[in-house]
Amino acid sequence: MSDGMSVAVVGATGVVGTEAVALLEERGFPVGSLRLMASGRSAGETIGFRGKDVTIEALAGADFAGIDLIFSAPGASVSLEYVPRAVAAGALVIDKSSAFRMAPDVPLVVPEVNGDAASRETRIIASPNCSTIPLVMVLDPLHRRFGIRRVVVSTYQAVSGAGQKAGDELIGQTVAILNRRPMPIEVFPHQIAFNCLPQVETFDPGLEGYSTEEQKVCDETRKIMGIPDLRITATCVRVPVVNGHSESVNIEFESPVDPAEARKLLDPMPGIRIVDSPAQGEYPMAVEASGLDEVLVGRIRRDFSVDNGLNLWLACDNIRKGAALNAIQIAERVFGIDPVRS
Is 190 labeled as catalytic in the residue annotation? Predict the structure, then answer.
């Protein structure tokens, strides 16, 4: 790995970090040297990359000198602690956590929507929430054509968005229930197997009944689309799905919109795939979206309860496009790199 950039992945043992390492190899990213960092518990373990094992370093006390690019996927508190040090050492950091998303001087980027906002000069580039990314990819072209007046979104979020332990808990609870054994409840506040939890993240008294996840979806959508007064509301629900977020989106427009027109507009958009033949059982599903780069969009139909209303349903791999892939696409955009599938 002598030719290319010096790249690091922070949070390399998490679900997003491991996906990022795999995508760097899959897309032929020009990695000259790769450093993997995680908590001290994982130090000394290895992850395979291009036929070789890369040893994981402890993030605490890491020396960032000489690193060109960091893909950052730990929690927000960890990012707040180490990202400034990494930037001071000369690295450009693309951060997946919520730490810097709403900072006025940090671009929040979905390459298909506002890729021009990303540049090497900012040194920190934030990647949005895994529910925000597919939402804005659909909203942006529709807004530019028809003008959005109001958005109501309900998310159906897979447990993978809460990390590996959350996925283990869903499977463990399912096995326990089917075998009539005691059921562990540790990651989520209630049983997730065979259940839906209208809580993603936490409830802050200052949010008047909304969860922090719901607030993120609204605030981030406004920032990415450059519409600070966009009327948008969200309800975020955790569902017993291993991987792949789905969303029900209701949009009210300034001008009339026909479903066929909306399909024709969205179909050629980068990163979007129309799957919309419901009579034949073809519509976006999490199991179909899992493993794909594209956001699947379907069930596009009129909302007859309002003027100029449209309903649609989307599904997206929240770990891939909703996290790791979006960050890598930002880097490709910033450095002018064309992906080459391995």
Answer: no
